[in-house]
Each structure stands twice: as C-alpha cells, then as structure tokens.
Amino acid sequence: MKTMTVERALLAFAGTMVLLSLVLTYLVHPNFVWFTAFVGANMLQSAFTGFCPAVFVLKKLGFPTEAQQARSCC
C-alpha cells in the first residue's frame, strides 16, 4: 500500500486551504478573499522558487518524499 507523500499532501493541504478560504469569504466576511489570494500567491512563488514552508512541516510530520518512497519500495 502506498503512503501519502509530501508532494500529494501538499496538494491536498493547498486545496483544502483554498476551499476553506472561499467558504469563509462567503459565510463570514468578504475580506477572507485575501486568504485565498495569499494561498494562491504562495503556490505561485513556490512554483518558481521551490520554497514552500508547508513542505518543512509535512516532512517534520513524517511524510516521505516521492523519491524516498521510490527508493524504499523494493
């Protein structure tokens, strides 16, 4: 059975944050749209720089990278 990797967990986390921020914008206050903008800006900058703070947290939580998982499969 495959475990969730850092890369997949990061996508799940980012998607959850976008959806949460949209719900908060709709139900709580329109200024929560800035949370959506922050998440999007962070995703964009990480695509160009390779730096994403959430990756450090996910690694500390024990999620393996795809490379680590590929080396340990066989």
Task: Give a structural overview.
This protein has 74 residues and is mainly α. It has one domain (6-69). The chain has helices at residues 6-27, 33-49, 53-60, 66-72. α1 runs antiparallel to α2 and α1 crosses α3. It is elongated. The mean pLDDT is 92.
Element layout with pairings:
Blueprint: H1 6-27, H2 33-49, H3 53-60, H4 66-72
Helix pairs in contact: 1-2, 1-3
Tally of separate helices: 4
Q: Give the structural class.
A: mainly alpha
Average pLDDT reading: 92
Tell me how many strands there are: 0
Count of discrete structural domains: 1
Q: Output the radius of gyration.
A: 15 Å
Summary tags:
74 residues, mainly alpha, 4 helices, elongated
Short description:
The chain is mostly helical and 74 residues long. 73% of the residues lie in helices and 0% in strands. Helix 1 (6-27) runs antiparallel to helix 2 (33-49).
